[in-house]
């Protein structure tokens, strides 16, 4: 399970770096480009890793990992969409 979570973390980090780079290259801004959602996603992942390290309660960290993945996916959808809401109205 640890290897699986590490692989997912590495892939999400690389994907987020690609999304941040694409967002800044297109000058879509902080809120429109989905960068804020990525920041929230990484914050939830950080809380998940903190709960995993301190082992405060079993499987409680998975809630934060799931919320972080959801925010990261929503941010990726917003950044990689061809016509995001708020542009070209």
Question: What is the secondary structure topology, with strand pairs?
Answer:
Elements: H1 2-26, H2 35-54, H3 61-80
Helix pairs in contact: 1-3, 2-3
Keywords: Membrane, Transmembrane, Transmembrane helix
Transmembrane segments: 6-27, 34-54, 60-80
What is the arithmetic mean of pLDDT?
A: 68
What ranges have pLDDT less than 50 throughout 5 or more consecutive residues?
none
Radius of gyration: 14 Å
Number of strands: 0
Can you give the helix content as a percent range? Answer: over 70%
Describe the global form: elongated
Q: In sequence order, what are the helices and strands, one letter per element?
A: HHH
The largest β sheet comes out as: none
Query: Please, what is the oligomeric state?
Result: single chain
Q: Proportion of β residues?
A: under 5%
Distance from first to last alpha carbon: 45 Å
* Class inferred from helices and paired strands: mainly alpha
The number of helical segments is: 3
Transmembrane segments: 6-27, 34-54, 60-80
Keywords: Membrane, Transmembrane, Transmembrane helix
Describe the structure.
The protein is mainly alpha-helical. Helices cover 73% and strands 0% of the residues. The protein starts with a helix and ends in a 9-residue tail after the last helix. It has a domain at 29-81. The chain contains 3 helices and no strands.
Structure summarized in a few sentences:
73% of the residues lie in helices and 0% in strands. The protein has three helices and no strands.
């Amino acid at each position: 399970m640890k290897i699986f979570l590490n692989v997912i973390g590495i892939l999400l980090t690389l994907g987020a770096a690609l999304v941040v780079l694409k967002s800044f290259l297109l000058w879509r801004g902080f809120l429109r480009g989905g960068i804020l959602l990525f920041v929230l996603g990484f914050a939830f992942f950080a809380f998940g890793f903190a709960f995993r390290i301190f082992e405060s309660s079993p499987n409680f960290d998975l809630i934060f990992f799931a919320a972080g993945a959801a925010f990261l996916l929503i941010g990726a959808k917003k950044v990689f969409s061809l016509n995001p809401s708020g542009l070209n109205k």
